[in-house]
Amino acid sequence: MAIEITTALKELTGELNDKSFNASNYLGSIGSEEVVNAMIALLDDPNPETRFMASRTLGLVENNSAALSWLFEAFKKKENSEILGDLIMALEGFDVSDNYVDIFKLYLFGSFKVSRIAEDLLDHKEFNITPRVLKKVQKHWLHYSNNVKQDEAFSLQKIEVEERLNDLKGFIDDSQG
What we know:
It is a single chain. The protein has helices spanning 2-11, 18-30, 33-42, 48-60, 68-76, 84-88, 100-109, 112-124, 131-146, 152-176. The termini are far apart. It is elongated and about 55 Å long. The protein contains ten helices and no strands.
């Protein structure tokens, strides 16, 4: 089996093709610690397509929690700014229940694609919402709203965010009451 993993890993580097996606699916189904560690290492590969395939594969692995912090670190790297939307799609395969604030920041500060993917995650994933999470989200919203152009697009986003914040407040009030 080690030979098959090694062969599949080679398919994830370089130019992407159908074999790359098949190899990613295969490695994701194996999901061993060896695969997870190899994908974490590939998150630093010089080739952006390889980094994308590593994140995609990690999203397919069932026991991938060890890689979540590495993936969030990859999001912050300048060399990943062009592929950030592709990278964060992998979060769909992770338990991000403790990462509401991180995803909310991607929603606020990301490009259009990043923001839409983060919004979808915020809307469809389960999260552990606490008063502290709400406070941090409000802090980031205040920072964002004080440092962005106050135009029509902001006005629309403000409505969406305030609705989201009110939902969080209501959830916390319901859970404490």
